[in-house]
Amino acid sequence: MDKEPVYIYTKLTASHDAPLAAIIRANLKRFHLDIPGTAYYDKSLDRLSTFYDCPGRYYLVLLREGRVMGGVGLAECEAFSDPACCELQKLYLADEAKGQGISYELMQRIEEKARETGYKRMYLETHTNLQAAIHLYERCGYRETERPEGVVHSTMNRFYIKEL
Fold first, then answer.
1. What spatial distance separates the first Cα and last Cα of the chain, rounded to whole Å?
2. For 7-163, which CATH class?
3. Given a cut of 80, is residue 35 above it in pLDDT?
4. Residue 122's Cα: distance from chain center in Å?
5. Domain boundaries in the chain?
6. Distances in Å between the alpha carbon of 133 and those of 92, 142, 164?
7. Which residues are within 8 A (CB) of 108 and not within 5 positions of it... i.e. 6 or more apart?
8. What's the DSSP call for residue 5?
9. What is the pLDDT of residue 81?
10. What's the pTM?
11. pLDDT digit string (tens) for 43-99?
């Protein structure tokens, strides 16, 4: 009988940067979003540990047997001038971690971290091509909202917010 995989959740470090960037880029490419205006071309993607290493930001990494399987982050929300609102960022999983309900666990953990940090609302941007992500966000209580003027990833075309 095969053992269930054991996943560990940990704070992002520099050793996670390269595998995490590869997972994010592979997912975006699979859904034809390896184009300008997406996280694929974020200047900080190869150094996420540096980006998330400041107050009001956090990135949670998912590990299995020491290998990076994905993660999720939060940071101040540039789309709104509301200090009580953060942005859920870069929720991606390696293929072998999908279909096990892990995304829901990541959502729960990052929302809890947002509350601990003092945020009251969480905003996110996604794309119509990412139907599984949209399903996840809606099941987790996010409601679709109008496109904010301050959108950073210009290719994104679906916008959600949730009261924490």
1. 41
2. alpha beta
3. yes
4. 12
5. 7-163
6. 9, 11, 19
7. none
8. P
9. 81
10. 0.92
11. 899 999 999 999 999 999 999 999 999 999 999 998 878 899 999 999 999 999 999
